Every structure is written in structure tokens, then in C-alpha cells.
């Protein structure tokens, strides 16, 4: 079967057997594709799941399927993120959006706009997206979201087993408390219950949402997140189409056309290649420490400066 392995420097497509062990896949990546980094785990699927890079389980048993994309997570430390640019190419800078650039859909039922609000492209995007929807602030620390997740897992070892978490419970709790660790399905499920909201998470490729909520006590309010494959953003309503978040509403008690508008907005984002254009990896030059965007940014920097050592931010 073919799988796509994505690193800060780019992606490779591998033809592997489903009975291959995950640890052997890791060795294959390191030896045949010049990955000098110490790989810790892989994130794949939607909602995202993690598997330890040294797991002694087959790709099939880890539920890695043909055509899956695996996002590589590295051990801590700049040196462990080192990779090499192979195609020389200046730094890409993201322009600030104007109102005319904003992805939005007008909702006539309530005379308002459904707008995509971008959150920082970092490893806390899931937590910040939830915080923005619930509080209007892009700061997950105010709600202690990572601590809530870790505490919930620690109090329910019978639910959050090693098989579910992809690693030992205490290891997972230490890991998710770190600001550089990504959140996924486990975190969405826990936070939806704790915050008493329904979370509608749209995968941009699937076009339909996956719902997270307390099935035994369905909440009265809901929020909507957009998932690009490696990044979460938030949908809000605002009667004024503006880049300003003043007047944003990200949590609703009734639908009033929001779900239908969300479907339309997802199609708009698909037409704009949102999944591939707005959430590229950031890499840092390990020689001059400039932060660059994606493989193209690294390649252009290499061409301009002669620097060829890069690490994930």
C-alpha cells in the first residue's frame, strides 16, 4: 500500500506492506530518505490519531491505511529536527487578510455572515480554536485546556488505555501538557464534555462534520471548527464583514442556518485549496535562525544564503 509521510522539509510517498511494523517504517524513513531526526510519533487520520514511532505493532493493527498521510513528530531538541534542503529556492511572508479576502458565507435567516477566523499556525491551534469560539480570545491558557485534558485522562485510566492513547497514560499526560503537542480526537471529546458544548469539526476533505458531545447529556450550545489536515481554525458569525473580531459570536444555542452555511463555506475553502495553502509547516534555519514557511521557503532560503540545515519550529 502507498502512504504519504510528511516532514518539515517536505513529503515522501512510500510503498509498504500493511504487515510492516511501525518501528520498521521509522527505520525505513531514517535510512532511505535521509531523515537524521529522532522521530517520536506519527499523527494520521481524522480525527487525528497518534502512534509511537517505535511501536512493535503492524501498520494494519495501528489502523494506518493505504493513502493515509502521516505527519512526523520529533523528539525535543533542535538537533533532532534537523533535515536537509535539496532544492534551492526568499522567505515567504503571509500577507494580512483584507475584508475582501475573508472566507465567508452570508446567512439571510439572521442577516449575518459566517466567517472563517484563522488562529496562529502553531501546535496549540486546536486549543486556541476552541478558546476563540468559547471566549472570543485566542489563548487556551485562560481556560487551562491542556490541564483539563490531562486531568481527565489521569482520572479515567479504564477509559484512556495505552491502546487508545498510543502510549502509556502518564507519558501521554506529560506530553499533552506541553505547548508544542498537537491535540486531536481525544482532546475534542474531553473538552466538549468539560465545556458543555457540541463541537462540530469539519474536515476540509470530507465536507461533513464529525460531532463531539456528551451523548448522555447533549449540550444546548455548539461551536464549529475547520480542520485542514494539520491545522484547526474557527467559524464565527458577525453582522459586519471585517478582519476585526469585535462583534464575533463563536458559540450558538440554535442553528439558524449556520450548519448549511458551514457546508457552503467548506466548499468555498476547498475551491481555494485551503487544505494545502494556508497551513504549511514552519521551519527554522539552524544556521541563522530565520523562520521560514514550508519546503518552498526553506529551498529559497537555501538558494539565497547557502544554508542547508533546517528544523521544525
UniProtKB/TrEMBL annotation:
GO terms for cellular component: cytosol; nucleus. It catalyses: Thiol-dependent hydrolysis of ester, thioester, amide, peptide and isopeptide bonds formed by the C-terminal Gly of ubiquitin (a 76-residue protein attached to proteins as an intracellular targeting signal). It holds the Pfam family zf-C2H2_OTU1_C. It is found in: Cytoplasm. It is an enzyme of class 3 (hydrolase). One of its GO terms (biological process) is endoplasmic reticulum unfolded protein response. Its EC number is 3.4.19.12. GO terms for molecular function: cysteine-type deubiquitinase activity. InterPro entries: OTU1_Ubl, OTU_dom, Papain-like_cys_pep_sf, Znf-C2H2_OTU1-like_C. Keywords: Cytoplasm, Hydrolase, Metal-binding, Protease, Thiol protease, Ubl conjugation pathway, Zinc, Zinc-finger. It comes from the Eukaryota. Residues 114-238 form the OTU domain. Hydrolase that can remove conjugated ubiquitin from proteins and may therefore play an important regulatory role at the level of protein turnover by preventing degradation. This is Ubiquitin thioesterase OTU. It comes from Metschnikowia bicuspidata.
